[in-house]
Design goal:
With about 325 residues, the chain is of the alpha/beta class. It folds into two domains: about 170 residues, Thiolase/Chalcone synthase (Peroxisomal Thiolase, Chain A, domain 1), CATH 3.40.47; about 150 residues, Peroxisomal Thiolase, Chain A, domain 1, CATH 3.40.47. About 35% of the residues lie in helices and about 25% in strands. It has eleven helices and 13 strands. Strands 1-7-6-4-5 form a five-stranded mixed beta sheet, with helices on both faces. A four-stranded mixed beta sheet has the order 8-13-12-11, sandwiched between helices. A two-stranded antiparallel ribbon has the order 2-3. The radius of gyration is 19 Å and the shape is globular. It starts with a strand and ends with a strand. The chain binds oxa(dethia)-CoA. The site of oxa(dethia)-CoA has 21 residues, from helix 2, helix 6, helix 8 and strand 12.
């Protein structure tokens, strides 16, 4: 049994927040943000938009392209760290909005690696179970709701958006679009990228709110080094499994955290920069949404053609990481 991506969709909110806007909010500069991260602007959801609303817009587009009605979906997986509620799952909320009433639903939390984890899980479900033919996987984030807008170390980095894919089981004998994949994690680094409060470890209280502990905190330099090493070895493992040299990769699609991270990963894999898809300048880091937004832009923009080899790789809080080598 094999699978294929039959539709992609993405959505970013209308509101653009530029580096110059941020100069008025915290002590930063367009020059610092651009040279350290490559980010020029990011999108910010409106107060009445939750993560499921962003996911819905991306899902509708992916379903349209897949010529699939929501009622045909067997399952929905939403990857997010900025879920609508702790529970119920954002996937259940999305199910209702779409009318996908046959679908099982769950959220998957692997931070910025969430979409890679979700595709791996969906792939395994489709391949192992005769019941599941069409699954919707989405990375969706309203990170603006979990960012401390007074912390210049983090607030300049993140943006909102969603990227979706419809995966379908293909007929017997067809080629599987997933050539290789791997997931990884290292729980010894949980504290370098986290939201300290709001869970069972430190439930919400006046004190946690006063101390702004419901917002993301990050030790940027530690994350940077670990991110490059983990993505490079994960990509190498995927290429080795498929017995392919990095020269056969048409597009490297890394999680859009920081253009310096992307360049370092590409260079260590010997992949020239012109074969690295980047939109971090326009959207910043959208965590679980970033790879989905890239893939949809590439698909709709004619950047990919059948037979192209795409290497997606991500890294995020947990720590988590993973790579998927795809034949388009
Ligand atoms: O999505 C997956 C997880 N996230 C990532 O992968 C992000 C990984 N980390 C990074 O991308 C980078 O580490 C950052 C972009 C976060 C920071 O870049 P850096 O080159 O590692 O800078 P730094 O943290 O070493 O800070 C350098 C200086 C510091 O000042 P001092 O101590 O040298 O005086 C910071 O206080 O830059 C200062 N700084 C800023 N200055 C202006 C930090 N943030 C800002 C800012 N504007 N927004």
């Amino acid at each position: 049994m094999s699978i294929k991506i039959i539709g992609t969709g993405s959505y970013v909110p209308e509101k653009v927040l530029t580096n110059f806007d941020l100069e008025k909010m915290v002590e930063t500069s367009d020059e610092w943000i651009r040279t350290r991260t490559g980010i020029e602007q990011r999108r910010i959801a409106s107060a009445d938009q939750a993560t499921s609303d962003l996911a819905y817009e991306a899902a509708v587009k992916a379903l349209e392209m897949a010529k699939t009605s929501a009622a045909e979906l067997d399952g929905i997986i939403v990857a997010s760290i900025s879920v609508d509620h702790v529970f119920p799952s954002t996937a259940c909320i999305l199910q209702k909005k779409l009318g996908a009433m046959k679908a099982f639903c769950f959220d998957l939390e692997a931070a910025c690696s969430g979409l890679i984890y979700s595709i791996e899980v969906a792939h395994a479900l489709i391949k192992s179970n005769i019941k599941y033919r069409k699954l919707l996987v989405i990375g969706a984030e309203k990170l603006s709701s979990i960012v401390n807008w007074e912390d210049r170390n983090t607030c300049v980095l993140f943006g909102d958006g969603a990227g979706a894919m419809v995966l379908e089981k293909t007929p017997e004998g067809a080629e599987d679009c997933v050539l290789a994949s791997n997931l990884g994690a290292n729980g010894t680094y949980t504290e370098i990228l986290q939201i300290p409060a709001g869970g069972s470890r430190m439930p919400a209280s006046q004190q946690t709110i006063d101390n702004k502990l419901h917002y993301m905190t990050m030790s940027g330099q530690d994350v940077f080094k670990l991110a490059v090493n983990a993505m490079v070895s994960s990509c190498k493992e995927a290429l080795a499994f498929a017995d392919m040299p990095s020269a056969s990769v048409t597009w490297l699609v890394p999680h859009q955290a920081n253009y310096r991270i992307l360049k370092a990963v590409a260079s260590r894999l010997d992949i020239p920069e012109e074969r690295v898809y980047m939109n971090v300048n326009r959207y910043g880091n959208t965590s679980a949404a970033s790879i989905g937004i890239c893939i949809d832009e590439m698909n709709r923009g004619g950047f990919v053609k059948p037979g192209d080899i795409i290497l997606m790789t991500a890294f995020g809080g947990g720590l988590t990481w993973g790579s998927i080598l795809l034949k388009w």
